[in-house]
């Protein structure tokens, strides 16, 4: 393992095998769509970004020189590799590409270092096996815990505050899991609340404190139109029963309510205005047995989170509130109606 200056990373890992057939590559092809976010992360957090080590195979001689000749087992020193050697990234090609882009925007990052784990190149089969082994047990963390631990993103901070302090959500949000267990006593997941609040504030130019205030006020305005939420807080109903019988605590319903709220916030910042606009939602039958949800919020009796189903759920709520649909929402609605006619 070596600490390598960032300025050397693009110079060392020069070759590009994107044009090779999959069976003669030792890496997946580069997904360039991932690079802007990774690059922005480095550039915007130059003092405290965190990257895991790159893993590379070296087709060339490697020589380790210890900094101590005392024979005491010192494992620190220098690794010497000829620049004519060929380097193959087994894990971390997107980090390498993002580092290259970040250096173009901020050359001062060149003196920063990243850990690189070097292996001797034992041939294509070994390199391919290394890639398979490195990714075999990789598991993406659940989004809820990502939101819980994210202290950079304003939306994540806002969602945590809502979950921990809002009278609507306090004590009823699972902060770790993005899917609730059948017997969970929670009504919502943190990831669903974050997505819904992101939808609520989408495109609004608000300062952080103002956005937090409006988000809290909006969800408190929604609470009276969904009486089962309050019944769970008062222990008149159990959370598992509510999730089983109704869809209003599922992510798609929260997200749809957030989109409805975004329309309301664009016309007024007054909770009194929202309350009057939201009042018609008291007539919505949120129960799973309502046949109107099939094809909209549910497919085959199961809640669906697809973009199309989200839009159809939003449309259903807008219709109850006598609100106009956007051109895109109308297109999706027309296609749905043609399919059921």
TrEMBL record:
Database matches in InterPro entries: DGQHR-contain_dom, DNA_S_mod_DndB
Name this polypeptide is given: DNA sulfur modification protein DndB
Annotated organism of origin: Streptomyces cirratus
């Amino acid at each position: 393992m070596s600490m390598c200056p960032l300025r050397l990373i693009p110079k060392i890992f020069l070759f590009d095998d994107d044009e090779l057939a999959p069976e003669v590559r030792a890496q997946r092809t580069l997904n360039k769509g991932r690079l802007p976010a990774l690059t922005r992360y480095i550039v915007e957090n130059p003092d405290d970004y965190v990257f895991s080590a790159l893993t590379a195979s070296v087709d060339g001689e490697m020589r380790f020189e210890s900094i101590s000749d005392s024979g005491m087992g010192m494992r620190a020193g220098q690794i010497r590799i000829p620049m004519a050697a060929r380097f193959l990234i087994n894990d971390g090609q997107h980090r390498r590409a993002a580092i290259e882009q970040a250096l173009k925007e901020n050359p001062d990052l060149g003196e920063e270092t990243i850990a690189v784990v070097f292996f001797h190149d034992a041939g294509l089969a070994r390199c391919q096996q290394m890639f398979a082994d490195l990714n075999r047990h990789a598991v993406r963390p659940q989004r809820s815990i990502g939101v819980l631990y994210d202290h950079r993103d304003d939306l994540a901070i806002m969602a945590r505050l809502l979950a921990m302090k809002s009278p609507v959500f306090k004590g009823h949000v699972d902060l770790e899991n993005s899917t609730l267990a059948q017997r969970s006593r929670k009504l919502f997941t943190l990831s669903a609340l974050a997505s819904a609040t992101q939808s609520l504030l989408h495109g609004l130019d608000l300062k952080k404190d103002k956005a937090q205030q409006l988000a809290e006020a909006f969800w408190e305005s929604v609470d009276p139109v969904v009486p089962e939420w309050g019944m769970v807080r008062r222990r008149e109903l159990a959370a598992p029963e509510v999730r089983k019988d109704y869809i209003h605590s599922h992510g798609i319903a929260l997200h749809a309510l957030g989109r409805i709220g975004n329309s309301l916030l664009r016309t007024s910042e007054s909770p009194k205005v929202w309350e009057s606009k939201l009042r018609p939602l008291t007539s919505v039958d949120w129960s799973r047995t309502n046949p109107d949800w099939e094809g909209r919020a549910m497919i085959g009796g199961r809640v669906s989170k697809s973009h199309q189903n989200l839009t159809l759920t939003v449309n259903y709520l807008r219709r109850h509130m006598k609100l106009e649909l956007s051109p895109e929402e109308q297109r999706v609605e027309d296609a749905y109606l043609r399919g059921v006619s």
